Amino acid sequence: MSRALNLDAPAEHVLEMCAKHKAAITQIERLVSGGTRVVLQNADSAAIIGRAYKGKVIAAAVKRTPMRTVRAG
């Protein structure tokens, strides 16, 4: 299982849920298309958070904001 989840939930709620389940976050970002992408430290944590969000896991492709700026030349 992947450690990354796209969730139909605000980032603040995802942070609270991860803290409640003691799931360590590697990276979190708001999605352009709405929702939150979260990368957990391990697959076990990702499975726990995935079950906690049941029907709110986004399975379709999502639009993300580039995390790095590409330098020309």
Query: How many domains comprise the coordinates?
Result: 1
Low-confidence stretches: none
Quantity of strands, as a count: 3
Order of helices and strands: EHEEH
Spatial separation of the terminal alpha carbons: 38 Å
Biggest sheet details: 3 strands, antiparallel
Beta-strand content: 15-25%
Oligomerization state: single chain
* Class based on secondary structure composition and strand pairing: alpha+beta
Helix percentage: 25-40%
Q: What is the structure about, briefly put?
A:
27% of the residues lie in helices and 21% in strands. It has helices at residues 11-20, 43-52; strands at 4-7, 25-30, 36-40.
Structure description:
With 73 residues, the protein is an alpha+beta fold. It has one domain. It has 2 helices and 3 strands, in the order βαββα. The chain has helices spanning 11-20, 43-52; strands at residues 4-7, 25-30, 36-40. A 3-stranded antiparallel beta sheet has the order 1-3-2. The longest helix is centred in the N-terminal third of the chain and has 10 residues, at 11-20. The mean pLDDT is 91.
Features:
three-stranded antiparallel sheet
Strand-helix topology:
Elements (H helix, E strand, L loop, with lengths): L3 E4 L3 H10 L4 E6 L5 E5 L2 H10 L21
Antiparallel strand pairs: 1-3, 2-3
